[in-house]
Amino acid sequence: MSSRHLMDVRTTNCSMEKEICSFIMPQGLFPYNVLSFVLVSASATFQRRVVNHVTHGLAGTAAYIDDLVVAMNTWEKHLQHLRLLFTHLSQAGQSLNVAKSWFTRSTVT
Asked: What are the Reverse transcriptase domain coordinates in residue numbering (predicted)?
């Protein structure tokens, strides 16, 4: 998925995160508008969002940070499952980077 750096801080289940995670410059105090991965909990926050909003209820789908794997027994089920995953991604405001995506692989490394 290509939008982890675009995750709106207001969608992170922590109402104070935007205030807490501000940085100070000579010109004033500036809050992050998107999730900054310099924060220790950023990967876990993004992972939780992926699991809760994208892969929830999709058996045969595994997520690790911004990687997704779909494994099904038959080609027909696999295609059907991919369609569901794409729908979930769209509904969650996420997208795939097609150039970095692999489809129809029999093994994953």
From this structure: 27-104
